[in-house]
Amino acid sequence: MAAKVSCCVVGAGAAGLCALKYALEYGMEAVAYEKYNEIGGTWVCTEHAADGCATAEDVHSSMYDGLRTNLPKEVMDFPDFKFPTNMRESYILASDVLKYFQSYAEHFKLLPHIKLRQEVVRVRPLHGKWEVLTLDLQSNDYTTQQFDYIFICNGRYATPSYPSTPGIDLFKGHKIHSHVFRRAETFKDATVLMVGAGRSGMDITHHIYPYAARIYLSHHLQQKPPITDFMPNVVQKPVVERYTENGAIFKDGTEANFTHIVFCTGYDLTIPFLSADCNLQVHDNLVYPLYKHCINIYHPTMCFIGLPIYAYPIQLFDLQMRFVMQYYSGKLQLPSAEDMLADTERDLAERRERGLPRRKAHLVGERQFDYYDELVALTGIDNIRPVIKKLSKICGGKFLYDLQNYRKTAFKVIDNENFVQFKLGEV
């Protein structure tokens, strides 16, 4: 940096740690505010009610007992900091992922720059800087500080989303969101409706089927339904038409009674601390207008790290940070606000043409590598390693079609282009 500038990072999960690391590397005076009492964000498993269930407001993490990653660790590490070489398994425990992020913070000497138990209450532009109001959750004192740049890294998996299905208020049984699921034995002898067959829906079904009496797995996957034959007490059902006092009627006209509902229906994006002066709309999981899903077009010294969904998070965080730092360091100049807005509108129009709803305006999915290519082409930064893309072709969709066995496969990256795979237990 030509001159010493200051920056604020909101959050000390994986995205926040990555942002802090690059800010310091580029010579910024940086501080990260973390609401909770340790770093790691969603990977910090928070215990709560004795029965393993609680209201969604009680917890901030979605981690549960026995959770293993649904992506191999070989696509989950930062390019400049690898998982320990003695870890043979690829699909590892959440606690191992948390240890990795803690080691990352220690390795890059981030901890002195992180303030724990500090809630960001308000962010607003003021006289060409960012005024950040924080609440110390131990002393209840408020503090304001000004920064030249701000990185929003508060995550998007803390506010559960529920479907507005008719009759849900009539149902007399237990209702929870996957966000607060903690232990499989909670569902011993229960009859359960699992709403959603995404990654969490399939994994929690797999966790609880040895305990539950019966599980109804409700989803909208018609052409390629998940394989559940190995779970004999799991019955697949279409989307719920409406709920009754003791169960539900499904779209195909069939009915079922059950004692519990687990909503595996995703999350609503919330950024409550942004003032109206930030000139951003946050509605229906869209933050608008952002250039390339990260830079605030009207206040370009604010950026968001980690908004795109269905991506490899660590690869995304690292590449987005290297992208924005090309501009924030002065190496490159951003396009005009008009050009950035036109680019954003083109992106949104293309998504509408593909039939994507507003809620999926930040979805990248199978096109995540096209998104990475865009950022690379604009700035000349290094792309993610080709081996990551090759691994994605092997790993994609396994939670639906090989849930019983896919975590028994392990991978070893040989170099930037090549990897080998093997079954655990093989020499």
Automatic annotation (TrEMBL):
The keyword NADP applies. Its cofactor is FAD. Gene3D superfamilies: FAD/NAD(P)-binding domain. It comes from the Eukaryota. Keywords: FAD, Flavoprotein, Monooxygenase, NADP, Oxidoreductase. GO terms for molecular function: flavin adenine dinucleotide binding; N,N-dimethylaniline monooxygenase activity; NADP binding. Its EC number is 1.-.-.-. Belongs to the FMO family. This is Flavin-containing monooxygenase. It comes from Bactrocera dorsalis.
